[in-house]
């Protein structure tokens, strides 16, 4: 058994983030999760934080470091949607989604890189979306924010690679979570019909890809986009 690592996961109280936290806990790592509303999984250090607030990001890292040592694995998962067609999309719809999903992830990566550069190792995993590369009507803001993670990860991969720090994106397709529970049966059926595997993902299937990217087996994988989408986005 390898030494437990210090892992920080944002949005770790539900859905994909919770499944990721549970997977790292089961692997024996020391896990801290940020949440806005509480409810972290058992065995995780819960940190209340809003990643759109730079001071809160700093405080979250300070709390994780005090408990578990320098963060060796960052999983930037926290994200929001505010879906509407382009002509109805307000500046607030745009900026709230981009500020949380993209700028929030930038702040997290910047803060994580400080400690990782000193350690001369680290894993940064961004939770993107198939929508970032495939596009989706009504999600101009969300798709742009998730596509931005790819450019960010690839730039970080080049910038930090010489210090054994990897940066990758996991791009889930449609996952069975609270975020997809709001869709109508008709919408759900329409989505399933486009997915070659004919079903939604279980959050644990996304967590498996994140866990692998953080493992020794993936030490030579960086700047990659790993789709976990049942084949929905093939070729993108």
Description:
Strands 3-2-1-4-5-6-7 form a seven-stranded parallel sheet, sandwiched between helices. It is globular, with a radius of gyration of 17 Å. It contains eight helices and seven strands; from the N terminus they run βαββαβαβααβαααβ. The N and C termini lie far apart (37 Å). 44% of the residues are buried. α1 links the parallel β1 and β2. The mean pLDDT is 95. By secondary structure, the protein is α/β, with parallel strands linked by helices. 45% of the residues lie in helices and 16% in strands. The chain has a single domain, classed as NAD(P)-binding Rossmann-like Domain (Rossmann fold). α1 crosses α8, α2 runs parallel beside α3 and α3 packs parallel to α5.
């Amino acid at each position: 058994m390898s030494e437990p690592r210090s892992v920080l996961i944002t949005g770790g109280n539900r859905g994909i983030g919770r499944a990721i936290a549970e997977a790292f806990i089961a692997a024996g790592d020391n896990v801290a999760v940020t949440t806005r509303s509480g409810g972290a999984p058992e065995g995780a250090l819960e940190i209340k934080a809003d990643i759109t607030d730079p001071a809160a990001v700093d405080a979250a890292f300070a709390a994780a470091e005090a408990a578990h040592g320098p963060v060796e694995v960052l999983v930037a998962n926290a994200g929001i949607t505010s879906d509407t067609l382009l002509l109805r999309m307000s500046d607030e719809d745009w900026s709230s989604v981009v500020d949380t999903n993209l700028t929030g992830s930038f702040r997290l990566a910047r803060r994580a890189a400080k400690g990782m550069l000193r350690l001369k190792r680290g894993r940064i995993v961004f939770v993107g979306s198939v929508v970032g590369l495939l596009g989706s009507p009504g999600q101009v803001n969300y798709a742009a924010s998730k596509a931005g993670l790819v450019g960010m990860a690839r730039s970080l991969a080049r910038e930090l690679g010489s210090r054994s720090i990897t940066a990758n994106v996991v791009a889930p397709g449609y996952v069975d979570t609270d975020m997809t529970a709001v869709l109508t049966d008709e919408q759900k059926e329409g989505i399933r019909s486009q997915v070659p595997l004919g079903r939604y993902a279980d959050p644990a299937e996304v967590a498996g890809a994140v866990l692998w990217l953080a493992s020794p087996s993936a030490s030579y994988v960086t700047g990659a986009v790993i789709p976990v989408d049942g084949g929905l986005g093939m070729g993108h």
